[in-house]
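re: ur question from earlier - yeah i can do the single chain one, its not a big deal. heres the input i used so u can compare w yours
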Amino acid sequence: MSRGPQREGLVPNTFITPNWVTTDTATGFLDSTKLIGRFDRQWDDSFFNKPGGAQIGDTVQVRIEQRWTATEGQALQQQAILNQTVPITVNHQFNVGMGWSSAQATLEVEEVQSRYTRPAGKRLAAKWDRVAGDEVYKSVYFAVGTPGTNVALNSTWQDAVALLQEQAVPDDFIACLSPSQQATLTSSNQALFNPTQFIGEMFKSGKFSGAALGMREWYFDPLLPTHTTGNFTASTWAIDGAAQTGTTLTVDGAGTYELNAGDIFTIDDVYSTNPLEQDLNMGRLQQFTMAADLNGSTTATLTFTPSIVTSGALQNVNAGPANNAAITFLGSTGAVSGTLTETLSRQNLVFHPSAFAFVMVDLDRDLPGADSGYTSDKETRVKMRWARQWNVQTDQKASRIDTIGGVAAILPYFAVRAYGAS
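and the output i got, formated as tokens:
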């Protein structure tokens, strides 16, 4: 029996299966990750075997390392177990949707890669990179540099490394910079003569990379977050009342102010200590970051992190602030009658991978009427789902590639912000 005229040469491509699409998209995703590609990925398994796949709102509590104090002598001094936890919440689902016609099913694999799957992976990677940076940077309270200005001196990067070493962070540091900051760094180092091979590679590539200045590796990412500092009129910020600890401070001496979450400040004579020897003053003023926006005049109650702890296993400062101790905001003109102007700054990051966590989890694959595939690679920990359905009226196979996951700042003192030009 004749089946009617057939179009020659249009043979459905059996290689372009749902599982192939997700795997190839995942390859594009992996090749394009910058910031999140350096985050700790060990927590994905915490969401394993969720009934029907993970959902928005699913949360796990990550236990962080126990902090002890070492005591001297033969007598037992039993210490309490401090079960510190940090939540990681699945709070984002990103997808790329497309129309996949029956004619396009005959395309060569290379065409599908260049037109659809690899670009989809790159776009999903960019979305995750941008969101991850925005969600973790405000938790980082250590910072170097000047708002609105790229770091020009190698000593500033070395100071960031020293700051992390003072906090007993393992020596495995990564720098993730904006292209503008990368250009400034490269330019400032091209006049150096040693090591010649390193300088030569930098000259040819136009990038600062490899192990240098205490970093294991340098990356550039155009999607790093920006931070706009708050503003205030002439102010002499000061502590209003001694013996204040915790995550709030009552202060006075302010003019009219609008402070932003992520603004950083220090307090006179409140110095950071070493986490392993909690009473060892590191000689560096402890930095704090605002946890919430705040506006008003004259007086304020600042909410911030980290908590001021003056004793015990979690001690992080040499002493609590004294009454009338001066407060200085990063970017202000000073502590006495100082002002602060809104300044937009790119937030470059120097960090140990354990500072931040990125999880990707499996989505439900029971999709009635849909053809679906997924990738869930244990080595790369990339999880994606592709689903499609054919529309008889349009001859389109509406399809979508989905990812679901979340990010969290697990150990924010394992990271330093380096302010740069916007």
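Confidence is low (pLDDT under 50) at residues 1-15, 202-206. not sure if urs matches, ping me
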